[in-house]
Write a structure and sequence with these properties.
By secondary structure, the protein is mainly α. It contains 3 helices and no strands. The radius of gyration is 14 Å and the shape is elongated.
């Protein structure tokens, strides 16, 4: 898909971004999710670990694993 035809990812919901990544392995969709939640994951890790370096490591581990797990993620549309 041409970069000029791509939807505005920042306007898409999480479910739409996940589906784009699952169906097309769309890295831009994944990057949008990461950008959207990066600080939340970091500060959550920091609140538990109480150490900045450990929190950064934990947050990076989340993003490293997300790609593999996201492919298998099933959205429950009945809720």
């Amino acid at each position: 898909m041409s970069r000029f035809l791509r939807p505005k990812y920042n306007k898409l919901g999480d479910e739409n971004l996940i589906e784009l990544f699952k169906q097309r392995r769309d890295e831009a969709a994944l990057n949008c999710l990461i950008k959207r939640y990066m600080s939340k994951v970091y500060y959550f890790s920091l609140s538990i670990l109480k150490n900045q370096m450990d929190a950064e490591d934990a947050a990076m581990e989340v993003w490293a694993n997300l790609k593999n797990h996201l492919v298998r993620y099933q959205i429950d549309k009945s809720a």
